[in-house]
Input
Amino acid sequence: MAKKDNRRYIFLQCTICKNKNYTSKKNYTNNKERLELNKFCNTCKKHTLHKEVK
Ligand SMILES: [Zn+2]
Output
């Protein structure tokens, strides 16, 4: 039986400089809301809020 795969690749974009710094996989069945994570941005040289983009 084939497993249903709802995972998609997404980017995490810095909200300050708009750089796409991280890629991630997301499971859409468990997590339908947009991801927002505090991550280190190499362009801003500090931790900034990163939001999910496609
Ligand atoms: Zn940045």
Summary: The mean pLDDT is 89. Residues 14, 16-17, 19, 41, 43-44, 48 surround zinc ion (CB under 6 Å). The first strand starts at residue 7 and ends at 14. The two ends are 30 Å apart (CA to CA).
